TrEMBL record:
It comes from the Eukaryota. The keyword Cytoplasm does not apply. GO terms for cellular component: PAM complex, Tim23 associated import motor. Keywords: Chaperone, Mitochondrion, Transit peptide. Residues 43-62 are annotated as: Disordered. One of its GO terms (biological process) is protein folding. It is found in: Mitochondrion matrix. The keyword Mitochondrion applies. Gene3D superfamilies: 3.90.20.20, Head domain of nucleotide exchange factor GrpE. This is GrpE protein homolog. Residues 43-59 have a biased composition (Basic and acidic residues). GO terms for molecular function: adenyl-nucleotide exchange factor activity; protein homodimerization activity; protein-folding chaperone binding; unfolded protein binding. It comes from Pichia membranifaciens.
Length: 231
C-alpha cells in the first residue's frame, strides 16, 4: 500500500497536466467555429436582404397596370431624349462658335493676302511716281512761262502724276511728307543733320525724298534732313 499511493498521485498529476494542455486548443477551435458560423449567418442575412429587396421591386412592378408600365417606359425614354437634346444643343453651340472663328480667321487671311499683293504692286509704282517728280523738277520755271509747248507738257505730266497719286490714295496708299514735323524713326530716314536757329532740334527741315505707307504700314521711309542739336 505504501508503494501504490505515490504511484496513484503521479497518475493524477499527469492527467491534470494533459487536461491543461488540451484546453487551449479546444477553446481556439470552438472560437473559430463560432466565428465561421457567425460569418455564414451574416452572409445569409445580407443575401436575404438583397433577395427581399429584389422580390419587393418585382412585386411592385407586377402590381403596376399595363398603362402605368407604358407610362414608366415612356418617362424613361423621355428622360433619355432630354439628355440627348442637351448634348446636341451643346454640340450645336460649339459648332457655331468654331464656324464663326473659322470665318474670322479666313477673312483676316484673305485681307492679308490682298494687302500683300497690293503692297508689292504699290512698291513698284513708287518708282514711277518718283520719275514724274524728277521730270517736273527738271523743268525750270522760266522755261515754263516762256514757252507754251513746254508749259503744256509740264501741265500734262503734273496732271498725270496727280491722278496717279489720287488713285493710289483711294486704295489705302498715303504719301509721307514730314516737313516741319518731329523726326519719327519709324517713318523717317535721316540722311543728314544741320543747325537751324529757326527750328527746334530734331525737327525735319528738308525732305530729300517723300515716303509712302499702305494701310498704316510703311512701304518706304521718307529721307529727310533734321535740325541738329546745339553743342
Amino acid at each position: 500500500m505504501f508503494v501504490q499511493r505515490p504511484f496513484a498521485a503521479a497518475l493524477r498529476a499527469s492527467a491534470r497536466s494533459a487536461a491543461r494542455q488540451t484546453r487551449p486548443s479546444y477553446a481556439v477551435n470552438c472560437h473559430r467555429g463560432f466565428v465561421s458560423s457567425r460569418n455564414f449567418l451574416d452572409a445569409e442575412k445580407g443575401s436575404g436582404k438583397e433577395t427581399a429587396a429584389e422580390e419587393a421591386k418585382e412585386a411592385v412592378e407586377e402590381e403596376l397596370s399595363p398603362i402605368e408600365k407604358d407610362l414608366k417606359e415612356l418617362k424613361g425614354k423621355l428622360e433619355k431624349k432630354e439628355k440627348e437634346l442637351v448634348e446636341m444643343k451643346d454640340l450645336y453651340v460649339r459648332s457655331i462658335a468654331d464656324f464663326r472663328n473659322l470665318q474670322e480667321t479666313t477673312k483676316r487671311e484673305i485681307q492679308k493676302a490682298k494687302d500683300f499683293a497690293l503692297q508689292k504692286f504699290a512698291k513698284d509704282l513708287i518708282e514711277s511716281i518718283d520719275n514724274f517728280g524728277h521730270a517736273l523738277s527738271a523743268v525750270k520755271e522760266d522755261s515754263v512761262k516762256a514757252n507754251d509747248e513746254i508749259k503744256q507738257l509740264y501741265d500734262g505730266v503734273k496732271l498725270t502724276r496727280d491722278v496717279f497719286e489720287k488713285t493710289l490714295t483711294r486704295h489705302g496708299m498715303k504719301k509721307i511728307d514730314p516737313m516741319d514735323e518731329e523726326f519719327d524713326p519709324n517713318k523717317h530716314e535721316a540722311t543728314f543733320q544741320a543747325p537751324n536757329e529757326e527750328k527746334e532740334p530734331g525737327t525735319v527741315f528738308f525732305v530729300q525724298q517723300p515716303g509712302y505707307e499702305l494701310n498704316g504700314r510703311v512701304l518706304r521711309a521718307a529721307k529727310v534732313g533734321i535740325v541738329k542739336a546745339k553743342d
